[in-house]
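U., I forgot to send this yesterday:
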Amino acid sequence: MDEYYSIINIGLATCAAFFAYFKFFREGTHKQRIQFDIDCLSLGNTENSQIIEVGCIAENKGNIEQRFDDIRVKIRGLDSTASLEEIEGHEPRLAFPIKLAQASLITEKMGYYFVRPKVIQRFPLVIRIPNDCDHIIVRATFKYKGTDDLHTSERAFLITG
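Result:
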């Protein structure tokens, strides 16, 4: 009878080891899992500028809290009267020649932002752009804390004001 219990215990331990391997190493449930996106809202016009809000959206699809100590945003524009040109060496990508903004969304005073598991967090940036700029491209990047893995998102938007 003791032999049966020993065999059952060994079998259960083996099953537990396979489960742990599958859960943690194959599925990567202990790893960072952020879905990162960008949105843009037009907030209206002033005499010579448009006000827009760019939002970086981080959805934590993992099981551990994620901390961001730097989220960088670059915004470039396209003049409504300019001719369309491609980026040299990166054809057929369209060039957005006007530098509009470059910023870090996390100030030194704040230190970091966090996103808990299964939570969607939006990080906004409000800027003004010239009235004659009707298209923008936004590129946002962050690094996972403790690694050099760079995560990026890039989107273009039509600005109507």
